[in-house]
Amino acid sequence: MLAAVLALLAAPVVTPGQDAHYRLDNGLEVILRHDRRAPLVAVRLRVHAGSVDDPRGRSGLAHVVEHVAHEGSTHVDRGRRETLEYVLSAHANNAETGFYSTEYYYTAPAQATEHVLWIEADRLGFVRGQHGEPTLAGVRRIVLNERRQRAEQDPLARLEIQALAALFPAGHPYHGAIIGSAEDLAAATIADVDAFLGEHVHPGNATLVLVGDLPAETPAWIERHFGGLPAQPRPAARTVPRVTRPRELRIAAEQPVGAAPAVLMAWPSPALDEDGDAAADVLAEALERGGYVRLARAEGPPEAAEFQATQRSLPHQSVFFVRVIGRVGGEPTRLVAEVDRVLSQVAAGALAEPAVRRARLRLARAHRSAQQDLQDRAALLAAEAAAGKRLGGGQDVDEWMAVTPAEVARFAREALRPEARVAVLAEGER
Amino acid sequence: MVAPRLERLGPSLLHVRRAGPTTAIGLVLRTGAEVDPPLASFTLELLARGRDRAVEDALGEYGGAIEVVWLADGALLQVEVEASAWREALGLLTAAVRSAALTGEDVEALRRERLAALQRRDGDPAARGLHLLQRRLAPSLDPLGEARRAASWSIEHVRKAQEQWLRAARPALVVVGEAPRAELARAAASALGEWPGPAAARTLAPESDAQEGRLVLPVPRREVLVVPRPGLAQTAILVGRTIPGDADALALELASAVVGSALREVLRRDRGDTYSVAVSHAPARRGGLLAIETQVEAAATGASLRAMFSQLKSAQGRFLTGDLLRLLGRAFQVERMLGQQRLSAVVEGVARLHVAGRPDDALAAELRRLGGVRDDDVESALSKWFAPEAMQVVLVGDPGTIRAQVEPLGLGPLQVIDDAR
């Protein structure tokens, strides 16, 4: 299998109208998928750099770079780009920054494909050196407002940031929020932005995905607009140390989340595609869809009014979150005790095959449904390529469908031990 | 441009053919003025889940997870399953609403979840502000309601609400997928055949649309509502008004895009006061809601409001060229296509036009009309629906900051809404 993939990547012979996966000479990885259900094309440029690549003392820099890249590039200043978007009906565009990647994307009418490729090629090759401190100052204000809106105003979002900051020590790439601290954002300079662009934003560190009603000229356009960008070696991957906790850490929330108490727990968990990652997804789904409440009520009315679980799968190390909201007048410590009781039952095998089977089937079906949207399909292909998986979604489904109740129990036993976690406890407002 | 091709296979079955490994099915129920939206949506969620989650479990065997979508003029129960299981899913979905086997324990379990959902909503300043605007201007849009009411519902309340659903107009089924037509029509007829329905049969199209649309009159702003959140770094600003059910929704949508673009330019780009500005229109026959939502730096609350109202004023009589409108219309055509990629989105789109009493070809007709929208339609929508003096204002944030900055603007006396009471 690996040999076949390597052979494909080494042979950039693309037949117009055919699906393809290849690299340009400068290292840009390209994935093309034809889908003619609508006269639209999804274009997604994934740069393999995210908040784990933020330099020390510059948390949030990758995200700031995403915003600066939105302000224009050498040949496509912001005004020109916006005019083109208007004329081409290419309004459906955005960008997002994660721990490991920054993605820029458009979904546009098929006839806009070449212009969108030109815009993205300029963004990949010609943002560095284009902006000064005034641009950065404007970007900083917007990002600080985004931080307030997404990370400060919402008390539940604050619980998560507190948990990540406590679970991963200062200096660890997962410490705190992707959007960065207000202090680091204030300290960032345009030289930091240019240095980040120079090191990380280039064809050798990027994947371009196109899905949709691709014109026959698409491979030639890609070569024309991206092929001339200079080759640079892919930067060395940032070290992301694994953390383990010798004992549980409980911390008080910075503020209540409302009249009822709430608790957010975070455990370090198996990395993306490692043994246990798929079992974690299945467990989260099964517990959310009735599994938790059925196990909790065995000893009386449940303390938790709402239960939510998520495996955030990441390379190197993932994080498993549990969030519970209680009842008015309840105590957060009682919520923690109830979660522990339920998880110890799961670890002992209490989640039986029917509940696990339904969770597997729901995950698989939802995965198939997600591919109805061209941009979601492009995002999935980019993520699969980054993880070295076979393209098309089959591997995730195979992994979920193979999960057994015994594996779910083993995951709970090995990963979700009380001593291995951080718990953020929010009292209800009095 | 491509719109979903809707076929009517019998009086209560709407079908869109889409190839693929899954099928989406929706059961569309109409509401009347007698329905209490929060209790009605709570009841539907209970029915969708079934006794001790039996319906949810049964659909889970086909990869489905049922969802209740509140449509103001009705509600949609929707599920997407593996394509081979459409028959079973259709049967489960329709049987769920008729089932009467719920217990007090089921009510209690969902009540706890509803109260937690209300807490999440009210913890988010923008969601809290939008809810207040909905309660004041368009209560039929509010499916969650308030904690005090949710705490009082019993199994008897739920049974009465279920009876209301069963006695409302005959429901419709919307299926998006590859199920064979004849077999689908038979399955739908069988599933809905003995539906209790109203005492006297009602037609599918509501008879009193225009009349209901005129029920809601624009109300001049009398005060500014303030939900205090001491120490908040940003102020959530919600500005909006009621929109009658017979308004030209398409022109309003384009006008909203014009206003949204202008506000983003001023509040985000020029002033740097905010990260985002959203302008939305939620239609409803008994009164929909036009809402502008943004969260601004607390220190810029007064200046942002002043800039916003100045933009609203200058939008009156804004001259739009034919070229600009053509581009805007085309952008919305593309947006429609993007929004109809997912099967579940098509089900919801069809359900919305059904409860609004619109014809079956409305999706295609709308797409065509977007290509040729007229400037006077949009300009009329701008002057009719964005007049500053009719806009109600809700602010969620630090009360001292708001008082100091907003009182001098002369938008009206501040009325504090105390959540703690």
Secondary structure elements and pairings:
The complex is a heterodimer of chains A (430) and B (421).
Chain A (H helix, E strand, L loop, with lengths): L1 H9 L9 E4 L5 E6 L5 E8 L13 H10 L7 H11 L3 E6 L4 E8 L3 H13 L7 H20 L2 H13 L14 H6 L2 H11 L5 E7 L5 H9 L22 E4 L9 E8 L7 H20 L9 E7 L5 E8 L6 H16 L5 H18 L3 H14 L6 H8 L3 H11 L6 E5 L4
Parallel strand pairs in A: 2-6, 7-11
Antiparallel strand pairs in A: 1-2, 3-5, 3-6, 4-5, 8-10, 8-11, 9-10
Chain B lengths: L5 E3 L4 E5 L4 E9 L6 H13 L4 H7 L6 E4 L3 E9 L3 H13 L5 H20 L1 H13 L9 H6 L2 H13 L4 E6 L3 H12 L16 H5 L10 E5 L5 E10 L5 H22 L3 E9 L5 E10 L3 H15 L6 H18 L3 H13 L6 H9 L4 H11 L6 E6 L1 H8 L7 E3 L5
Parallel strand pairs in B: 2-6, 7-11, 7-12
Antiparallel strand pairs in B: 1-2, 3-5, 3-6, 4-5, 8-10, 8-11, 9-10
Helix pairs in contact in B: 1-3, 1-7, 3-8, 10-11, 10-15, 11-16, 12-14
Protein name (chain A): Insulinase (Peptidase family M16)
Pfam families (chain A): Peptidase_M16, Peptidase_M16_C
GO molecular function (chain A): metal ion binding; metallopeptidase activity
Question: In words, what does this structure look like?
Answer:
Chain A: One of its GO terms (biological process) is proteolysis. Chain A: This is Insulinase (Peptidase family M16). Chain A: It comes from Nannocystis exedens. Chain A: Belongs to the peptidase M16 family. Chain A: Residues 189-360 form the Peptidase M16 C-terminal domain. Chain B: GO terms for molecular function: metal ion binding. The complex is a heterodimer of chains A (430) and B (421). Chain A has 430 residues and is α+β, with helices and mostly antiparallel strands. Chain A has 2 domains: 9-226, Metalloenzyme, LuxS/M16 peptidase-like (Cytochrome Bc1 Complex, Chain A, domain 1); 249-426, Metalloenzyme, LuxS/M16 peptidase-like (Cytochrome Bc1 Complex, Chain A, domain 1, 2-Layer Sandwich). Chain A has helices spanning 2-10, 61-70, 78-88, 113-125, 133-152, 155-167, 182-187, 190-200, 218-226, 277-296, 332-347, 353-370, 374-387, 394-401, 405-415, and strands spanning 20-23, 29-34, 40-47, 92-97, 102-109, 206-212, 249-252, 262-269, 306-312, 318-325, 422-426. In chain A, the strands form 2 sheets. A 6-stranded mixed β-sheet of chain A has the order 1-2-6-3-5-4, sandwiched between helices. Chain A has a 5-stranded mixed β-sheet with strand order 7-11-8-10-9, sandwiched between helices. In chain A, helix 2 (61-70) crosses helix 5 (133-152), helix 2 crosses helix 8 (190-200) and helix 12 packs antiparallel against helix 14. Mean pLDDT of chain A is 94; it is low at 1-8. With 421 residues, chain B is of the alpha+beta class. Chain B folds into 2 domains: 6-192, Metalloenzyme, LuxS/M16 peptidase-like (Cytochrome Bc1 Complex, Chain A, domain 1, 2-Layer Sandwich), CATH 3.30.830.10; 224-416, Metalloenzyme, LuxS/M16 peptidase-like (Cytochrome Bc1 Complex, Chain A, domain 1). Chain B has helices at residues 37-49, 54-60, 86-98, 104-123, 125-137, 147-152, 155-167, 181-192, 209-213, 249-270, 301-315, 322-339, 343-355, 362-370, 375-385, 399-406, and strands at 6-8, 13-17, 22-30, 67-70, 74-82, 172-177, 224-228, 234-243, 274-282, 288-297, 392-397, 414-416. In chain B, the strands form 2 sheets. In chain B, strands 1-2-6-3-5-4 form a 6-stranded mixed β-sheet, sandwiched between helices. The longest helix of chain B has 22 residues, at 249-270. The model of chain B is unreliable at 200-217 (pLDDT under 50). Chains A and B meet through strand 5, helix 5, helix 10 and helix 12 of A and helix 2, strand 5, helix 4, strand 9 and strand 10 of B.
